[in-house]
């Protein structure tokens, strides 16, 4: 038995085969380890690439959120203040994400959760702003309608005032007493009508104040202006003046009459110098209006 053991233990051929077997196993193990290491490092690179891509997506989402916040315009002080807080929160989140060196899936999920929370808050603010804008539009429309109503009322009032003014003016015009049948005559010392100016010592203007039921009855002055051939108004005195449309006019004769809305014959006399032959112009005034005109020729 001892010999058999020795023969087996000292068999060089068998020992060489055992060594080669071990070598093969080692080589196989090295190859397997190399393959596993290659697969591991490739997965690590893939995971890092995916993490970097997701990080960039997160940055873009935060940037979009910042842009949305900046684009929101609102006049409400409370909402504006809260939007400022959210903008500061987004800026801080962006800075924090940019400073992340080894980002994991758990970290990415945490950022995604915070971004979604901020988006929900923003949606709520958008709804509030839309409600405020709708209310403002409604109030603006009501204000426009109210101003239009006020303007319509103003226009109607102005139109009514204009109609009233027009009616008043018509009444005033309609209430003017007109003078008709105006005649200028030259008189001698016996108050007889003479054909020649050289024989006249004074002038008489005869006319009829027409009946007018719209005119106010009562006493008033009637003025006559006689313009001679030389273009000057005949006047007995420099103080012979009356008011007409804001001016002082010279009159040739004046008389107080009592008008009672019926035809009234009136005669006024000019007693003065300057009576010559030629064409004379006669104007009659009463109640602030010129109520009649005529021309006459004296030889």
Structure report:
Helices cover 54% and strands 23% of the residues. It has a 4-stranded antiparallel beta sheet with strand order 6-3-8-9, with no helix packed on it. A 3-stranded antiparallel beta sheet has the order 1-2-7, with no helix packed on it. It has a two-stranded antiparallel sheet with strand order 4-5. The longest helix has 70 residues, at 105-174. It has 2 domains: 13-122; 179-298, Immunoglobulin-like, CATH 2.60.40. The chain is of the alpha+beta class and 299 residues long. The protein has helices at 2-9, 12-71, 77-98, 105-174; strands at 179-187, 202-209, 218-227, 241-244, 247-250, 253-259, 264-270, 278-286, 289-298.
The SSE string, one letter per element, is HHHHEEEEEEEEE
Task: Name the quaternary structure.
Answer: single chain
The number of domains is 2
Helix content: 40-55%
CATH level 1 name of the largest domain: Mainly Beta
Output the strand order for the largest sheet.
Answer: 6-3-8-9
Mean pLDDT: 81
């Amino acid at each position: 038995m001892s010999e058999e053991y020795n023969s087996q233990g000292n068999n060089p051929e068998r020992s060489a085969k055992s060594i080669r077997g071990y070598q093969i196993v080692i080589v196989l193990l090295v190859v397997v380890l190399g393959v596993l290491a290659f697969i591991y490092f490739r997965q690590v690179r893939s995971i890092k690439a995916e993490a970097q891509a997701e990080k960039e997506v997160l940055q873009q989402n935060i940037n979009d959120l910042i842009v949305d916040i900046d684009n929101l315009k609102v006049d409400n002080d409370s909402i504006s203040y809260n939007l400022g807080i959210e903008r500061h929160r987004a800026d801080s989140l962006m800075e924090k994400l940019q400073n992340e060196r080894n980002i994991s899936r758990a970290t990415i999920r945490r950022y995604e959760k915070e971004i979604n929370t901020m988006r929900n808050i923003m949606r709520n603010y958008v709804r509030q702003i839309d409600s405020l804008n709708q209310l403002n539009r409604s109030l603006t429309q009501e204000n426009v309608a109210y101003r239009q109503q006020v303007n319509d009322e103003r226009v109607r009032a102005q139109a009514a005032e204009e109609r009233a003014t027009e009616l008043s003016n018509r009444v005033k015009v309609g209430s003017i007493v007109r003078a008709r049948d105006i005649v200028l005559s030259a008189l001698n010392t016996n108050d007889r009508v003479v054909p020649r100016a050289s024989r006249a010592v004074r002038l008489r203007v005869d006319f009829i104040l027409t009946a007018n039921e719209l005119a106010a009855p009562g006493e008033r002055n009637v003025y006559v202006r006689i313009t001679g051939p030389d273009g000057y108004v005949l006047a007995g005195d420099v103080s012979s003046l009356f008011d007409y449309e804001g001016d002082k006019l010279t009159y040739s004769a004046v008389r107080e009459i009592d008008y009672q809305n019926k035809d009234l014959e009136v005669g006024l006399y000019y007693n003065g110098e300057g009576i010559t032959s030629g064409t004379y112009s006669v104007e009659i005034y009463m109640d602030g209006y010129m109520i009649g005109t005529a021309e006459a020729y004296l030889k």
